Amino acid sequence: MTSTKTCACKGKRTCLVCEPLIQTENTCLHEEKVTYVYCPDCGRAWRDTKTNDKHPNHSGNSIIFPGVTLIENFVSPEEEEWLVSEIDNTAWIDSQSGRRKQDYGPKVNFKKRKVKASVFSGLPAFSKMLVKRMNDSNYLDDFEPVELCNLEYTPERGSTIDPHLDDSWIWGERLVTLTLLSDTKHTMTSDCQPDVEVIIPLHRRSLVIVQGAARHEWMHAIKRVDITQRRLAMTFRELTPEFRQGGQNEVLGRELLQIAASFGGLSVGTKCT
Ligand SMILES: O=C(O)CCC(=O)C(=O)O
Ligand SMILES: [Fe+2]
């Protein structure tokens, strides 16, 4: 691939801004995968067929798919409108694959395993009510996020996110994402089951918690076809035990938790994953 990219894409990543400027290799993109759709009510993913019935009337093949919790209507339409206006009052930074981002968290060099707390001024004030609501829920009562990454996806830019696993050195067990403005889907794939993909429907205003096998064994992605309108994602991340009490990086972890909980943060330009 030769390139003179004018956007934030690096390496093999592309978006609708840079694609007309680059020559892509003529690779075969047809992958034969069997698609399963995750059902939050039974924790299983069911073979996608035109006649697929809704829970509990599923039929056909299914696979167990542990580690995904969906909470519908986590925020109201009025709260969504307020959150979007707060987010849009903050500068966006161009990111890879046609996304834009805002980051509230420490600067992390994942390869060198280095963390700088000094750039981090806390989670933003507008996220305080979301963290409180998480803590009031059954699933996230002990969730103490130290990072919020807001991502913006638009069909005009052809925004996507390639299949990836989030870091698991500093970022802890639960990845928590609130979807705003439009529905989308996570496509989960695993090298261990190359002919399978599992779709997680992410509805507008819903919260998804990804942990366990879904966090560590399955990569998540968002395909271009699944961004049909502007979508904002607010992803909150917690610390691993290494940064908690008794861990090797406990002191740094405590500092990050304190900064995060000030809820006076300004966005910084750091990496999200
Ligand atoms: O937009 C999303 O729902 C996922 C974002 C994501 O995977 C990431 O920031 O690592
Ligand atoms: Fe991710």
UniProtKB/TrEMBL annotation:
| A GO molecular-function annotation | demethylase activity
Domain annotation Fe2OG dioxygenase: ranges = 142-240
Locate the transmembrane regions by residue number: none
Q: Which UniProt keywords apply?
A: Iron, Metal-binding, Oxidoreductase
**GO terms of biological process kind:** demethylation
Query: Where are the annotated coiled coils located?
Result: none
| Signal peptide residue numbers | none
PROSITE patterns for the chain: FE2OG_OXY (PS51471)
Keyword Iron listed: yes
The keyword Oxidoreductase appears for this protein? yes
InterPro entries on file? AlkB-like_sf, ALKBH4, Oxoglu/Fe-dep_dioxygenase_dom
Q: Which cofactor does it need?
A: Fe(2+)
Q: Which family does it belong to?
A: Belongs to the iron/ascorbate-dependent oxidoreductase family.
What is the name attached to this protein's record?
Answer: Fe2OG dioxygenase domain-containing protein
Write the lineage as a comma-separated list.
Answer: Eukaryota, Metazoa, Spiralia, Lophotrochozoa, Annelida
